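User: Can you write out an input/output pair for a complex, sequences first and structure second?

Assistant: Here is one pair. Inputs:
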Amino acid sequence: MRRASNRPLAVGKRLNTPQKTVPLRVSESHVHAQQKVFSAAISPVRPPRRPWSKGPLLVLPAGLLSLSSTHWGWENLLLLLACAIFAVLVLRPKNEIWPIRLGLCDWGMLLVLVYEVPALILSRYRSNGFSSLKTVCAAAMFYCIIRLAARQSWRVPGLAAAIGTGGVYLSWLAISQAGGEIGALAAVGFSDLVSFRSRLVSAPWIPGEWFTLVLLTLPFAFAVPAFFCAGRQWNWAAVTVPMALVIAAALLLSCSRAVAGGVIVFVLVVTALAAAYRVVRLKTAAIFAAGALCTLGLVLLAENAMFPGIAEAYVGRHASQTRSTEGRLAIWKRSAEVFATSPWWGVGSGKAPLFLASSADEAETTGFASRTFSLPIQILTEKGAIGAAIYLTVLILAGWEAHRKLRNPKTSPQMKAMTCCFAAGVIAVLFRELTYSSLLEHAATAMLFTMCLALLVAEEEAA
Amino acid sequence: MTLARVALLLALGGIAVSFVFGDYDRAESSLRSFYSQMEKADFEGAKRSIDEAVRLWPSNARYHSWRGYAISQNLPSQCPALDAKTRERVAVAAADYRRALQLNDRDAVAHHNLAWLDHLLGQDREARQEFERAVALDPDTAIYHLSLGLFLDEAGEAEAAERQYIAALDLSPGILDSPFFTRYRARFPQRAEATVREAVAQTENRLGNANDPILKARLGKFYLNGGDLQRAAEMLESSARDLPNLPMVWFNLGEVWRLKGNREQAWVCYQKAAFLDGSLAGPPLRMGEMYNEAGQRARAINDLRSATQDWAHINPVTAAHNTRLYGGIRQPIDDLLPTTLVWYTSSCEASEAYRALAVQFPDNKMYAARSRTCEDLPDPHAEKNL
């Protein structure tokens, strides 16, 4: 990824004067020196001086780690993330001399944080919103860590491979649990798996949330072979493709049409973006899309052969699915009433269930509404129109930055391919969340989503 | 502005927020201790834990509710005249619930429990408002309707009480097997029959020609209770076909087959019910009885003991709801007052199970003593009702 050598340096722009822009072509060996000279002399962007020394900063992570040593989980998540930020700042290599200026998406993330504070203060029962605030804070901090860490091209596939491997582990866990549960169901005489889809995975979370987490790892797992394909490293691509396949297999086992739809949307959007931004030719994209969909079909058939009844979830119209749809519609109707009570600031993060708890409508047998079952509706209800507009702004800004990156001819094909994967991942998860609301329920899902956004807008720099 | 500086600011902000949340996390740990102590009936320890939680997170309404609940553990389960000391404790518990409702007025459990405490204090006007508020906030929870109905019954408003009983039965026909309804039927047989008739008619009307498996399941239970086994089987089988994941449908279907004399089919249904919900006391009770009849003593004893345990640890639906409403640690304990209310208004398998165990262990005095557990459960408003 040695593209900096060909990058023209716009001196006039750096001077920030009406001076005429003079493109300079500098040799690779002199690029850093040139940068230092220009920066020190004329650039408004600060030279590679560190406003802090490493010594005290090294003490901070150690101190924070000792503070959080009793619990390594949710309790000390923010401390651990703060520690990671310090570590990233202290340990970054010396050749990373250019400070990253805040991009549009970064400003959007800051806006979200700024919004959450008054939103919490203005909400009705604040104690119930602290957990959500912590989740948003953790997601924003993780976003910063990824933005700071993913500065060199090799780090993006490296991070993607790490998350993809985690996704494979989660998928394997889900597949083995589902296998055991299906066996147990069959032993008691139950063969209709669709009705028992919520029992197939007994993960630490609610299965729907678990599958959102697994779906979030799909773009990372897919980005790795995409990176190798774009670099024409076919052997490595072939070795890493099964990661995405295992995750897709686990997702199809969910018996959830929204989750399976998310996988299909991911495949279609990846190919559409790759074709639109000329990462691959249209014909190649079409062949890939057809091949990927056929592979998904084959995976589903194989699963149906192993666990008869899985495919029925996607082709039939089961009574439990009908009830699920009816229940969602009823809850959305209640959500609209809740939104009307507090249209600007919402009822507060994490508080929608308090307001949706029950309905006096005797015609309903939906019962207790534990969530809004739609991320857009959850955000509208809990964060109001203002919050929804801010969250939407982040997505639009991230999309805009991704678009600029994909259109930039200097972006490497590998980076473009991975960007397509992350963009498709974001869209696929949002598609799944149209009928479920799990993204903001856990720090892990929120952090993975913001990681996707951070890698989507990550700049490509010289290695 | 560079990202590194923003990240640094965020990290510092994160540390500051983390120290604020640190107390809250410790409060949640105290809540976890509170739950485990309550499960072990260590009320003094539980009180200390919840006091600590309130100290660490005073704006958490739930902690105030739990403190009120902990204080109420040794209060009478009926509403007799209180001595001065008990009255003082009731007032302290009520103050905690009031504080909880000041912080979060949408907590139906807190309204319900405060209503009971107000009633104990003789403040019936306030109690009525709180009971009604609980029903308004969560009209789909049957036990709130029952509590309000019992309160209205005591106040002499039989008609209004009956409306609440009908609403409760409509939502949860399993109440028909509860000590409450057994006694209601014994005391007021005509009123009880009219209540059931009205609940059945309402459910039949709502079902109409639709195909709602939940309504069919409820109707199946009503028909089973009324002895109409044919229609009960039809409704329950239809419901089980559409939604085979409902444990009570399988249990009730098992009851239908048992009453029809088809033990094999009944066994299959009980097995399915037990598999789907391991916390139900009914399936192990019936399976224990069937093992007993088949001469498999060890298995019978195991299942019967399991039935008593499951019955003792029965939790109201509000426990599951609260876990979802307030997040955090799963709520493993009951949260309603009086402390015997859930047993009083739920299907009671304890007496049958203890009687069967007493037969197996004639020398065990505890089993013999507990063989009238359901019959001995106190009515919340016994004195005036009787």
